[in-house]
Amino acid sequence: MDYSDFGYSYEASPFMTVVYLAIAVLGIIAMWKLFEKAGEPGWASIIPFYNVYVLFKITWGNGWKFLFLLIPIANIVFMIITMVKLAKAFGKGGGFAVGLIFLSIIFYCILAFGPATYLGVPQDV
Question: How is 53-116 classified by DSSP, letter by letter?
Fold first, then answer.
């Protein structure tokens, strides 16, 4: 028995493809604006790996710490701490950090298009 007998298809839905593409473009635009607010080049948001380097540079002060993401399990902890530091770098609190952890695209847009300003690398977390 094949799943196609039940109406399931292995093909990509054109509608969902457009939705995913729109979300990806929105994320790139939000990261572009976020990087520009932090004084970094906006084009860095479209370069894979370099965008993570720049994000870590904004939050940790040292971009090379993104290499910690290559360590299993620890990468989850580092990304959570990075989102907390990103919230603090823009003057936001713990609730906003939780939003960045679970709904990052939406909260990137809030940071990028809202009145938040970059305060610098947070010194304490």
Answer: HHHHHHHHS-GGGGGGGGSTTHHHHHHHHHHHHHHHHTT--HHHHHHHHHSHHHHHHHHHHSS-
